[in-house]
Amino acid sequence: MPPLFHAPLKMGLSPSRCPWTTPRLLGSNDSSRLQDSQIAALEQAIRDAHECDDGEIQLYNEQIDTLRKETKEAESSLERSSYDCRQLVVAQQTLRNELDWYLRIENTGNRSYQRCAGYNCSETKTQRPPQEPSEEKGDGSER
Questions:
Q1: Are 27 and 14 in contact (CB under 8 A)?
Q2: How many helical (H) and strand (E) elements, i.e. helices and strands, does the chain have?
Q3: Whole-number Å distance between alpha carbons of 134 and 132
Q4: pTM of this structure
Q5: DSSP state, 11?
């Protein structure tokens, strides 16, 4: 029967990498077995290491959740800002169009004024005849 190494090898650990043990060959009737207190101490060290690892894993999971929430909030804020920017672009284009419209009106008015400047525009104004009261409106005296 081949010689067996103790617990760390069974757990998939190399005996040289386990600081709490030294490799020993054990036989079936070996008198150099680890005593119960040593085994209990090793088991407790393993449990403590697992608890420490579990605590770190829990901490990392909490950090991951926090980062996910922050990322979601940042994405939402980015969407709102992007929507606001699109609205501003639309408003800006509307204002540019309106400004262009006013500039065209102003240019048309200037051209009309320049045409009139060569002539006496006050003489060319046409006056409308005064409007006569319509016959449909009665004073209420006819019956």
A1: no
A2: 3, 0
A3: 6
A4: 0.41
A5: T
Structure tokens at 76: 């939402």
Q: What contacts 8, CB < 8 A, 6 or more positions away?
A: 14, 15, 17, 18, 21
On average, the pLDDT of the chain sits at 73
CA–CA dist 54, 48 (Å, integer): 10
Count of C-beta atoms within a 10 Å radius of residue 92: 10
Which pLDDT band holds residue 28 (cuts at 50, 70, 90)?
very low
Q: Which of 34, 39, 12 is nearest to 24 (CA)?
A: 34
Give the residues across from 4 on adjacent strands.
26
Q: Is 95 exposed, middle or buried (0-12, 13-18, 19+ CB in 10 A)?
A: exposed
Integer Cα distance of 84 and 78 in angstroms: 10
| 15 in Cβ contact with 23 (< 8 Å) | yes
Q: What are the DSSP calls for 73-141, one per residue?
A: HHHHHHHHHHHHHHHHHHHHHHHHHHHHHHHHHHHHHHHHHHHHHTS-HHHHPPPPPPPPPPTT---S-
The predicted pLDDT at position 96 comes to 97
